[in-house]
């Protein structure tokens, strides 16, 4: 009887492993088939600022497509909640100051990083994780996703994902498309890889290190465009953003908004 039980157990293990391998192969094949049949028309994300605290027009068709593949761009219109995100291709020397302001104001944020960033600023990535922030995927090399093939796109996403897991035991799940460019094909691939694309409903010209915006004007621009369900995009390479962030966060709260993590998005 004992011998029969051992044989049965071996059969069950073999069956389970075979089924898992089959499911993995089928999932991979499905991803490739789906990607090959979907539109790869490049969509560049753009919004029209209102300066009136109303949700901006992000484009009905683009939002519908994003929603279809579990992407995020605008939260609940009825709740005074905003979500703070930073794009981070490289370290310009301001992130620790930004993290200090977030810690001082007890505000969560999401940092979308590249392969270059994780390789050159691993201590700051560790601080992001330790202080409860989300670290998101901005791909290894910041290439426009619609311009590369399925295999290369998967590598751009999953090599960074794997590096984050190996170095920090951290599982990424949010992705910001480089340059704000995507297509239905890339949305489908990202979703099949377990990722949610995160766009934004506010951004301003803050990324040029050689031409930083006036601090007073930048602060006013951010505050004038506050709206319910807002996903704020700032660049952590901006000295202006680092200098005004503490006062901006205090004013956002003073205006009755709550700043939440993307994990609480609705």
Written account of the structure:
The N and C termini lie far apart (55 Å). The protein has helices at 2-37, 60-68, 95-105, 115-120, 122-130, 150-168, 184-192, 215-224, 239-254, and strands at 43-44, 81-88, 110-113, 134-137, 174-175, 181-182, 196-197, 230-235, 258-260. It has 266 residues and is α/β, with parallel strands linked by helices.
Quick overview of this protein structure:
This protein has helices at residues 2-37, 60-68, 95-105, 115-120, 122-130, 150-168, 184-192, 215-224, 239-254; strands at 43-44, 81-88, 110-113, 134-137, 174-175, 181-182, 196-197, 230-235, 258-260. It is of the alpha/beta class.
Descriptive key words:
266 residues; alpha/beta; TIM Barrel; five-stranded parallel beta sheet; 12% strand; globular
